[in-house]
């Protein structure tokens, strides 16, 4: 999930990590040390992020039948062995996780309820985790992530009524870094304890780059990775820092948008929409390039494989609320989407319109790459009957 705090930085590497490092230098966030260690070559598990949510319009509301078709495609055409099921709504999350397990996919289940009281977030996690444990006991290969970037989404860690206000407070220095880290550590420990209490499998958490996390609480390190470096060595140097814990490293999100220059935005590719215009418009004069997106994903997969990472999940399969409008570049909201498919509405600009997705070049590139990884990999998921 691309977050509104990912500000483009100039220099050798443009990353969310560098944004946070700049904040740390200003005394807002603490910086951590790092030491690289080696890893066996080869990417063990390849997957894609599948986000479930209520939908922003009647036309993009969650549909079980559509989800089932999508998961068949993820398995049979994308050749992924893993699907990261994320979003909110226990029923949506559990229905999708069950379907993925039924189809023999490894399930990385990550509830991401935010901007509600802490108690509700933890109960949402507990309910989802209980279902994950049921799947695991029935033989599914399932891992539970307790959430994503808590400092951004959980109220009370950083002052602010919502994500945008929290980011403004961070940028303007209206945050006590010591108090913030203390609150973050407290909630992370709570979430880990809830996860352990309901789930007997491997536990993880999806952190932003350079977040200070007690990885001793988790079995797998999870990082949302959106860096840009002009050479492979920059990515290798950055990712090796996370291997110092001696635990499996999973890239829980990686990707970019389909226009020229998008990778260089390092996770800010989505910030090209003027939301004040009605209908919303694309800012600037972007040149659509599905090849740019596909090339970047393949380059990162080469890096992940060379480091022997445990798993990598491309962000994301589909973004229904960012429709592609061929022949109308001013309103082609798919330019702001990280999806490897493009959403096409039956009736453009109608919020109740039906829609379908079509594959981008990134979809085909990932399908070829994942099929190759499957042939040479160690995927061990098996179909599970939940009847």
Head-to-tail CA distance between termini = 33 Å
In DSSP terms, counting alpha (H) and pi (I) runs of 4 or more, how many helices? 10
Mean pLDDT: 87
Give the amount of beta strand, in percent. 15-25%
What characterizes the major β-sheet? 8 strands, parallel, barrel
Total beta strands: 12
User: What structural class is derived from the secondary structure elements?
Assistant: alpha/beta
Helix fraction, binned, reads 25-40%
User: What does the radius of gyration come to?
Assistant: 20 Å
Task: Name its key features.
12 strands; 16% strand; alpha/beta; 387 residues
Produce the secondary structure layout.
Elements: H1 16-25, E1 45-52, H2 64-76, E2 82-87, H3 90-102, E3 106-111, H4 118-137, E4 142-148, H5 150-153, H6 163-171, H7 177-198, E5 203-208, E6 220-224, H8 232-240, E7 249-254, E8 273-274, E9 281-282, H9 290-306, E10 311-314, E11 341-345, E12 355-359, H10 361-376
Parallel strand pairs: 1-2, 1-10, 2-3, 3-4, 4-5, 5-6, 6-7, 7-10
Antiparallel strand pairs: 8-9, 11-12
Helix pairs in contact: 2-3, 3-4, 4-7, 9-10
Explain briefly what this protein structure is.
The protein has helices at residues 16-25, 64-76, 90-102, 118-137, 150-153, 163-171, 177-198, 232-240, 290-306, 361-376, and strands at residues 45-52, 82-87, 106-111, 142-148, 203-208, 220-224, 249-254, 273-274, 281-282, 311-314, 341-345, 355-359. With 387 residues, it is α/β, with parallel strands linked by helices. The longest helix is centred in the middle third of the chain and has 22 residues, at 177-198.
């Amino acid at each position: 999930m691309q977050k509104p705090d990912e500000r483009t930085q100039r220099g050798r590497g443009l990353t969310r990590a560098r944004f946070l490092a700049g904040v740390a230098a200003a005394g807002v966030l603490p910086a951590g040390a790092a030491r690289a260690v080696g890893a066996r070559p080869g990417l063990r598990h390849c997957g894609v992020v599948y986000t479930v949510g209520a939908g922003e319009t009647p036309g993009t509301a969650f549909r079980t039948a559509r989800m089932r078709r999508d998961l068949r495609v993820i398995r049979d055409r994308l050749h992924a062995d893993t699907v990261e099921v994320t979003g909110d709504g226990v029923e949506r999350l559990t229905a999708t996780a069950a379907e993925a397990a039924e189809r023999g996919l490894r399930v990385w289940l990550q509830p991401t309820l935010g901007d509600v009281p802490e108690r509700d977030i933890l109960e949402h996690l507990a309910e989802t985790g209980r279902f994950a444990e049921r799947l695991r006991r029935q033989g599914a290969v399932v891992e539970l992530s307790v959430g994503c970037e808590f400092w951004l989404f959980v109220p009370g860690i950083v002052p602010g009524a919502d994500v945008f206000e929290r980011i403004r407070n961070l940028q303007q220095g209206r945050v006590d870094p010591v108090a913030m880290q203390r609150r973050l550590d407290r909630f992370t420990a709570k979430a880990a304890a809830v996860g352990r209490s309901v789930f007997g499998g491997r536990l993880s958490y999806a952190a932003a780059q350079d977040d200070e996390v007690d990885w001793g609480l988790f079995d797998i390190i999870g990082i949302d990775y959106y860096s840009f470096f002009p050479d492979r060595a920059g990515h290798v140097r950055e990712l090796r820092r996370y291997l110092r814990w001696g635990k499996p490293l999973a890239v829980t999100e990686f990707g970019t948008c389909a226009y020229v220059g998008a990778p260089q935005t390092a996770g800010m590719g989505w910030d090209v929409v003027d939301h004040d215009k009605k209908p919303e418009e694309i800012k600037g004069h972007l040149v659509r390039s599905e090849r740019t997106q596909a090339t970047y994903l393949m380059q990162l997969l080469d890096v992940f494989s060379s480091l022997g990472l445990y798993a990598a999940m491309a962000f994301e399969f589909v973004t229904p609320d960012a429709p592609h409008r061929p022949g109308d570049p001013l309103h082609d909201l798919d330019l702001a989407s990280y999806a490897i498919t493009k959403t096409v509405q039956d009736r453009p600009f109608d919020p109740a319109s039906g829609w379908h997705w079509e594959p981008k070049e990134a979809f085909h590139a990932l399908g070829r790459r994942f099929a190759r990884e499957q042939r040479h990999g160690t995927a061990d998921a098996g179909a599970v009957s939940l009847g």
